[in-house]
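Record type: monomer structure entry
Structure origin: computed from sequence
Chain ID: A
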Amino acid sequence: MARSGTPAFSQLLSRRRLIAGAAAAGLAPHLRAETAADGVRALRALPGAAFAGDEQRPSLRGYDGTVPGPTLRVRRGEELRVRLVNELAEPTAIHWHGIRLPNAMDGVPLLTQAAVAPRTSFDYRFQPPDAGTFWYHAATGSQLDQGLHGALIVEEPERIAADRDIVLVLGMPDEPGSPQVRVNGAIRPDIAVRTGERLRLRMINASSARGLSVKLEGHAAWVMAIDGQPAEPFLARDSRIALGPGNRADLFVDTVRNPGTAAAMLAGTRDEQPIARLIYESGGDVRAPARPEPAPLPANSLPARIDLKSSLRAELALGRGAPLDPAGPPLFTVRRGRAVTLAVRNAGGQPQAVHVHGHAFRLLDRLDDGWAPYWLDTLVVGERTERIAFVADNPGRWLIECRMLERSDSDTAVWFAVT
């Protein structure tokens, strides 16, 4: 059912879609979460936090006092145990964005758990079934944009043919006088590289309502995974990708320039601005032969086919802000294991980011019953109706959250039930 060929993110941009189309030397290091005596990693949600290499700012909030919070790493299939300790003056919870986890661990107050009250804690425990680039953040958009977010990396059991693994958390925290895109909390950091390396760049758009178009000058960029799920590798046209709010992309980049040179990483939705640089240090193998095209990343356990003909068909009409009503009826109810085809209609025309919890989905073609050859968990829907499909294989009550771009106060939330 999948289309042949490889997708190009520039095509998605031309159709006015913003979808996903160990830190390096020179970047502030990612912190490791504290480990309690019982083996649970403690994450403290704190008022007042600091960007990388900066002083504490009262307007920010951060996990363990930093923005972004500690990078969490776990191998696929291993149990992740995290204790959220709420030291804020208001309730909070953690959503594990893109993870197909048990419903009780999804971190949605009123729907999957009670909000974590001030001066209390909650233990999250689950085994991520998929290797890839994911992230964690506060369940509300306002707390997310104030700094409560961080990267979650689920590592493959197999060795990956990349010399370095670099996490790049792209954020624009809601902080006075700071409109720039920050990379791992820093403004325009330098990423030290050496000639002849193959880099794995894990890019995360850690914003609630801002889309980004990211370009790496002078380097070919192979798109290896989108929203944490491996894709058939393809070259990003013009070395540019589009990341809607919450989207991720894994890129393989070969460092082919000479020592002493630099290459800019640019981002923006209208006017591109430099957000980081690759700085070539001395050393490396300047005479190394060109590397072959990268092989696909190891596949995760997602279905090879989706039975569209017998799928449950539903429609989601995007509106202008409707709060979650867990006591009301679900958008739809589906038996576990059945496919769902969901038409997402945006009558208002203002692009909205739509995130489906607990499942990865395919974007269906407009002209036939095939689908794009990659998986997503977050999609920006413009003026047209988009159709997505997934297998409802995760029981529970699952959120679909929608938010207008550039409008963090426009949340709409519905839920569906898998029985």
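Annotation 1: Helices lie at 9-14, 141-145.
Annotation 2: Residues 9-14 form the longest helix (6 residues).
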